[in-house]
Amino acid sequence: MSSGHRTMTLFVTVILGLVVVIVGLAAAWPVWVWPASVVPLAVAITLMHKLLKPRPIPVDSAPPHEAGGQGRRIAHIALPSAVPDYDFSFSATVLWLVLDTPDGAPPINPAALAVDAVLQRARAVTARQPPDHCALAQHQLDAALATMHADGTGRIMAMAHDVVLTLPEHDRERLTKLADVRKDEDVWEHERNYERNKRAYLGDDVLKDPGSAVVWWLSRNEEEIEGAVERIGMLAQLSAAANNDTVAPPFEHLIAPPWTDRAHEEDASSGAPDWGQHDVDDVPFDAFPSDRGVDSFLAWFGFSAEDPDVRLFAKRLTRLAAAHGKTDVVDALRHRFAPDPPEHGDTEPPRSAEQGGE
In the β-sheet with 87-98, what is the strand arrangement from edge to edge? Predict the structure, then answer.
């Protein structure tokens, strides 16, 4: 019993009770009549309850083949998807009803007409669906084929149930791989755009000129004013390199000379030969004919006059020069260091390079 039915029954019961009470009072019923009036009141209420009870609407939910129609199972029918070369596999039970045959109409094959009508309706749905949404397409297809529709000839009505829509396993694997590649490409494209934007920011904004570079560095190190001043030359070089240009003249005096230039300046001031222009193998020992040349040569090796190992190094260098027949270098070294009287073993004839030495 529905809530509306109960409400209506209660309302009718109250109305009938009031009617009985009003009639009894108006007619001055004796006391014994009041209990007797309950029986006809109950009967009236029962009848009204049955009359007001809603009647169920008959629904013909039986499948057409149970209601006199016929059916056929079709399986593994290829239906196109929204992507070329990726076809769905369609299976379903096709049901149909034969309509009245007009006078003089030719005989028909209702099963063939029904299957064709269902496939046309199914193809119209799957052709709009991407192959990687197979489960969603199956639900939509099941709903589209759930009602009877007349075919193009008007001779039958067809529908389908137990719809199954699948995608071959190898196609699913391909789609998964393609999806992974697209995702990787998206990530790579975003990273490349980020790098491109960063390069454009540094080249076109930060390093477009020395002033912009200094302001950029200072904005990141607001408390290091002196550090910014010390780095003006370096930032000017960076700006020039970023723009494939030379350092602007106002900033040239802030750039430290290259190491080789400083070495040349020091060698020129000390009178030492220019080692920056030659390889070690290209400089003969007789390039140091004077004491000052010997000092420069030893300084190049990191020895000073106060170094306790300089005499030992000079002794070994003398033996090496003698082994190669550089007598002028030997004389220059001995003259510079005025070595003590030869120790035992030093008076031996110098050994050749093939015999080896210290």
Answer: 70-80, 87-98, 156-166, 149-150
